[in-house]
Amino acid sequence: MVGKRRAEMMEETRAKLVRAARKAFAEQGYAAASMDELTATVGLTRGALYHNFGDKRGLLLAVVNQIDGEMAAQARAVGARAGNAWEGLLAEGIAYIEMALEPEVQRIVLLDGPAFLGDPSLWPSQNNCLQETRRTVERLVAQGIVKPVDPEAAARLLNGAALNAALWVAASPNPQEVLAKAVEAFRCLAGGLLKP
Fold first, then answer.
1. The three-state (H, E, C) secondary structure of the chain, written as one string
2. Which of 136, 180, 181, 125 is nearest to 158 (CA)?
3. Paired strand residues for 146
4. What are 106-129's pLDDT values in tens digits?
5. At residue 146, what are phi and psi to the nearest 5 degrees?
């Protein structure tokens, strides 16, 4: 019973820190966010942050994983509403690119994330998306909709194209204009996988 309560308290502490960090990173950016101010807003100490996340970078990773998970769920929901599996795959990729217009996603995941956490393709959350895309491509190949290509290679290229398009949109001084170009090019690239 005591162990369960302790685990619940630790999870509550982690959730408070992630919530506060998410707000601070979105408003101020990762580099400018003060860990003393962040922990004070939720009535905790820096020790709680270090105990739960190791350091500020570990906290950023937790925030990025949370947002990236939400992005993946949102993209899947968009894909599920499409007319068929192929359109669903395209819709998921395009939805991911479009999320680059959301200020929180743009700043935390697409600008600060790569700057402070490194290559996004190596993040655990990106690997989850990759595996889902691979399974979809496998189904499309089996159904004869997509050319008989290696599903992992196709999934990596599709996910890479969507991620790089989103990074381009996020860093652009004209994101709306770049978004239209990125979506059009993504559709053309992905269309090359279709069986004639």
1. CHHHHHHHHHHHHHHHHHHHHHHHHHHHCCCCCCHHHHHHHCCCCHHHHHHHHCCHHHHHHHHHHHHHHHHHHHHHHHHHCCCCHHHHHHHHHHHHHHHHHCHHHHHHHHHHHHHHHCCHHHCHHHHHHHHHHHHHHHHHHHCCCECCCCHHHHHHHHHHHHHHHHHHHHHCCCHHHHHHHHHHHHHHHHHCCECC
2. 136
3. 194
4. 999 999 999 999 998 888 877 788
5. -110, 145
To the question of domain 6-191 being in CATH 1.10.357.10, the answer is yes
Would the pTM of this model clear 0.85, i.e. be above it?
Answer: yes
Q: For the chain, give every domain's residue range.
A: 6-191
Strand-pair partners of 194: 146
CA distance 22 to 71: 14
Residue 180 in contact with residue 108, Cβ under 8 Å?
no
Structure tokens at 1: 């019973």
- b/e string for 63-77 if b means 16 or more Cβ within 10 A? bbbbbbeebbebbbe
Dump pLDDT digits (tens) for 177-190: 999 999 999 999 99
